[in-house]
Design goal:
This protein has 463 residues and is of the alpha/beta class. It folds into 3 domains: 45-136, no CATH class; 174-329, Rossmann fold (3-Layer(aba) Sandwich); 334-419. It is built from 17 helices and 11 strands. It has helices spanning 11-18, 29-38, 46-49, 58-61, 70-82, 112-117, 119-124, 128-136, 186-196, 208-220, 235-247, 280-287, 308-318, 334-370, 381-407, 436-441, 446-462, and strands at 2-5, 24-27, 52-56, 93-97, 174-180, 200-204, 226-229, 252-255, 268-273, 297-303, 325-326. The strands form 3 sheets. A 7-stranded parallel β-sheet has the order 7-8-6-9-10-5-11, sandwiched between helices. Strands 1-2 form a two-stranded parallel ribbon. The protein has a two-stranded parallel ribbon with strand order 3-4. Helix 12 (280-287) links the parallel strand 9 and strand 10 (297-303). Residues 1-119 form the Helicase ATP-binding domain. It comes from Aplanochytrium stocchinoi. Its EC number is 3.6.4.13.
């Protein structure tokens, strides 16, 4: 019997599941530790009855500021382990899993002078694995099982790192690409990619504010199958959005790093880094959402000038500088693409102002009622009515303009808009209205375009 214990779900139902004495418990630290503290019968004697302790994403679990409930639970197991009066039924075995768990080996400095300067630092330096062992209370020499690709060093150049040996790997069939652009142009290229290439796509952003802005713009642009995922969502809402994303083979999920680990969503073809991550480990976990189970995948990084140094550091740390190529963009589509995105961005900004004013007014009225204070909302009523009417007219104007732009087919500049030069019999649901995304992506493949772009760049270099 297997039980699932997670936060945000019914506590009474999970208590009933534990009364059935499951053999395997898959749990999140917060809810599991709360049930342990409540004194559930099935969890009362874990120190003596627990045979296997498996911690997935171990490096993230024990990071400072993350999952504080895990430390008291591990301390409880270590404390009871040292108690000689207790009789242990079985010997416990602990497993640590992570795609970015360093092996702890360090490259020696090339200069003797640097060796002398950093001798004390290297002596006291511990790898993340040794640090985790100390936190969990493990002793002795652990058995390390590292999953590597067969004959991985044949085509891969060796890179010496000053900090640690590269011990993290990206999927073998993952294509790494980048587009250098400004912060404002990121949304243009994102919309271009989503309209040109079909397939399940995961878009990663760094903050919730950026997520709300990007998702609102994409929603105005009528991107089908759009969902969001971030840390401030309730558990039920997260599961609902994930199910929606899984059920749509062309779905788009805009998410923060909460979706970078622990999710195994099948058939994710593309991962787009709208915001460059802060660490190389996060880049590995994000990109690892695609190209799973020996399938092809593509990772696209939208790099702004202020993110160039950070992205170069990630490439150097992972040793992938020579593997990242520039993603080819058909510039003939960009003028029409920019017109759409620009109007959608303006519409999002105006609607954001309207919603902010409503939220501020509701917050003031709610807190005034709690404090038993009378607030006169009639003094500025005429001015507020004028502003709201003006904003509503702007919303209507932008909505009509965007609707007109979306009604036109997204075709290259200079191409005829009257005739379709594609065999409609090859298109799915040809009897229905064909959207721009369906029309242009049936015979277009991101991997094929990438290969063509590499061939063109080679010809230019020869010339």
């Amino acid at each position: 019997r297997i039980a699932t214990i997670v936060g945000g779900m019914s506590l009474a139902k999970q208590e009933r599941v534990l009364r059935q004495n499951p053999h395997v418990i898959v749990a999140t630290p917060g809810r599991f530790w709360s049930l342990v503290r409540q004194g559930e019968d099935h969890l009362s004697d874990l120190a003596a009855s627990l045979r296997f302790l498996v911690i997935d994403e171990a490096d993230r679990m024990f990071d400072r500021g993350h999952f504080p409930e895990l430390k008291p639970f591990v301390d409880m197991l270590c404390r009871d382990k040292g108690d000689t009066t207790r009789i242990r039924k079985k010997k416990r075995q602990t497993f640590l899993f992570s795609a970015t768990l360093m092996s702890g080996k360090h490259v020696s400095c090339s200069s003797k002078k640097r060796k002398r300067k950093k001798k004390q630092q290297h002596q006291s330096l511990q790898s993340p694995l040794l640090g985790l062992m100390e936190k969990i209370g493990l002793r002795g020499k652990p058995a390390i099982c590292k999953v590597e690709r067969k004959n991985e060093n044949i085509d891969e150049p060796e890179h010496e790192l000053d900090s640690a040996v590269k011990s993290v790997q990206l999927p073998q069939r993952l294509k790494l690409t980048e587009i250098m652009c400004t912060d404002r142009d990121k949304t243009y290229y994102l919309y271009y990619f989503l309209t040109q290439y079909k397939g399940r796509c995961l878009v990663f952003v760094n903050t919730i504010a950026v997520l709300r802005r990007v998702s609102a713009i994409l929603q105005h642009l009528q991107i089908q199958g759009l969902s969001t995922l971030h840390a401030n969502m309730q558990q039920r809402q997260r599961l609902k959005h994930l199910d929606r994303f899984r059920s749509n083979e062309n779905g788009v999920l805009v998410a923060t790093d909460v979706a970078a680990r622990g999710l195994d969503i099948p058939e994710v073809k593309f991962v787009i880094h709208y915001g460059i991550p802060q660490t190389s480990e996060t880049y590995v976990h994000r990109s690892g959402r695609t190209a799973r189970a020996s399938k092809e995948g593509l990772s696209l990084s939208l790099v702004s000038p202020r993110e160039v140094n950070q992205f170069n550091l990630i490439k150097k740390t992972l040793g992938i500088d020579s593997k990242i190529s520039t993603f080819p963009v058909d510039t003939a589509y960009m003028p029409l693409t920019k017109d759409r995105v620009l109007v959608a961005s303006q519409l999002q900004q105006v609607m954001h102002r309207v919603n902010s004013k409503k939220a501020d007014k509701n917050w003031l009225a709610e807190n005034a009622e709690k404090a038993e204070i009378e607030v006169d909302f009639l003094s500025n009523r005429e001015q507020e009515t004028y502003i709201s009417d003006k904003l509503q007219k702007e919303i209507n104007r932008l909505s009509k303009r965007l609707k007109l732009l979306l009604s036109k087919r997204l075709v290259p500049v200079g191409a005829s808009r009257k005739f379709v030069t594609v065999n409609l019999d090859l298109l799915p649901n040809a009897d229905k209205v064909v959207t721009a995304r369906d029309f242009f992506t049936n015979s277009r493949n991101a991997h094929d375009d990438l290969k063509k772009g590499k061939k063109k760049s080679r010809k230019r270099q020869r010339r």
